[in-house]
Amino acid sequence: MIESFVHFLIYSILLMVVVFPTSLLLLTWITPVSVIDRYLQPPHFSEFESLAYRYFPSSLIRTNLFSLAIAIPFARQIRKFGDIHTQVPLWFNLACRFYMYFVFGYAVLCMAAMGLIAICLMFGYLP
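-> structure tokens emitted (127 positions)
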């Protein structure tokens, strides 16, 4: 039982190393320019953030913020995006929701499972 669980976690880690960055890069690449121009400005972002989030390494943060705001309603209030989920194209809306719910959610669940295993090993509950 434990061996199969460990194999699952190893597979999950390998899957996260490939799927998480690939899907984030793909989502960053397909973000519509109209969405970037409309929401990457004050009052949603500061002047520095507006400039920084247009270029590669930090554009990944922008994509995560947009995806979070589209997928989770309370996240829209943080940056005052309003009804961003109705303003973006349907295909981008679905892609962001898929990324947040499945890819990012899977990564969070696997990290929680690894933390639980570490705690169990630390207290001697697992052989």
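The mean pLDDT is 83.
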